[in-house]
Amino acid sequence: MKDLSKSLFERAVKVAPGGVHSPVRGYQSVGGTPFFFKEGKGAYLTSVEGDRYLDFCQSFGPLMLGHRDPDVHEAVIKTLEKIWTVGACEPYSLELAEWITAKVPFVEKLRFVNSGTEAVMSALRVARAATGREKVLKFEGCYHGHVDSLLVKSGSGLAESTGASSSAGVGKVVAEQTFVWPLDKMDGLEEFFHTKGKELAAVILEPLPANYGLLPQRKEFWDKVFDLAKKQGALIIFDEVITGFRVAPKGMAEVLGVTPDLVTYGKVIGGGFPIGCYGGREDLMNLVAPLGPVYQAGTLSGNPIGMMAGLTTLKKMEEINIWDLLEKRGKRFAQKLNTEFETQGLKARMRQIGSLFWMMPIDDFGCAPRAVSHIPPTLKDWFSKYFHECLKNSIYFAPNGFEVGFLGLGHTDEILDQAAETLVGIVKNIQQ
Question: Is 267 a catalytic residue?
């Protein structure tokens, strides 16, 4: 353990719960004491001790262009020299809103907020107001921020499929507003919608589940869910906080060929600054105050710094067609790793979709899990060893085996080739 990081963490635990400001930053899942980082550039982080690490966390996804992209840096500095926050109408959020609504036709209107959680909370409020219904359906393994009613786990069966709280402080009445359904489970789906569908204000989902490993769904499963929901008058909410503008210019909605009623964004659209956004059909968004009866507000919403960082990021992504570039790099990286894993008889695989990937051990199920129940039970122990070996080799992943990895513009083929060679060696060592 690095001495300076250790001393900083000893100070941190005295002033913050667990010494962190978001639970996954702690090392409870992998053991040990968190490293502290003081600087980022491109694909790399530098620790407070001055050591450089190849970063596959990328702040959990916002940094499509990598740490401190020079064009985003310039835009931020220019904005800082003019304004920080205003609490009034300004042109910065207007520019970003016009860009998004022009590029994503089904986002007819939107509202900026400060986090993905806030975006989801607000979208649910709109859905309930629009339908006059209370209940929501989510899917096991999908995460939608720390909204009270969505911090739930599944019940024991169809008759008890309303959620049970997965966090202290969430009341039973709140948790029971949410039904939970397993991913990839077609059996019983029609019966569920037949018996409970008229109670649903909305079905909320990650169209590419990426918060409990990477669990892409069969298109026929999602198509069935969407069809049944629409027949029952429930709205479809896509939570694209991770995938929005990362997997494709119009996100997973474009990939699936589906038009959701409402969508939530975050991460990428802020270029590394705090941001969230919810939007969708004009008639639904017109329910939001001051135009309609759904109240939602935020002192720092539409902050000029985040707006300009996000707009500059998105424009540059489009200019260089980053989606095609990172898809090619990611695919090459995954193929290189998986070929070596197979050739050397190593029980690990990388699953990759665009610029997202997930490292995991494999068992008899193979490398194509689509539901939480498919994930190897050995994941936690395996990843703990893998994580610490990566640190020893100057590679940083999020400190939890269920978190996906992210590629950014700074991850060149040369860097990824070198990383692949190192990762194969690490997996080989921990398997022995």
Answer: yes
Q: CA separation (Å) from 245 to 119, 180, 292, 324? A: 16, 27, 29, 12
Residue 154 has pLDDT above 80, yes or no: no
Catalytic annotation on 185? no
- Of 44, 143, 212, 278, the catalytic one is 143
d(CA 99, CA 310): 10
Q: What is the pTM of this model?
A: 0.95
Active-site residue flag, 261: no
Whether 160 has a pLDDT exceeding 80, the answer reads no
Active-site residue, selected from the candidate residues 138, 267, 316, 336? 267
Alpha-carbon distance of 401 to 386, in angstroms, equals 9
DSSP 355-377: TEEEEEE--TT-S---SGGGS-T
Residues 311 and 333 sit within 8 Å (Cβ to Cβ): no
390-421 confidence digits (pLDDT tens): 999 999 999 999 999 999 999 999 999 999 99
Q: Which residue out of 55, 69, 184, 239 is catalytically annotated? A: 239
- Amino acid 10: pLDDT: 96
DSSP 106-117: T--EEEEESSHH
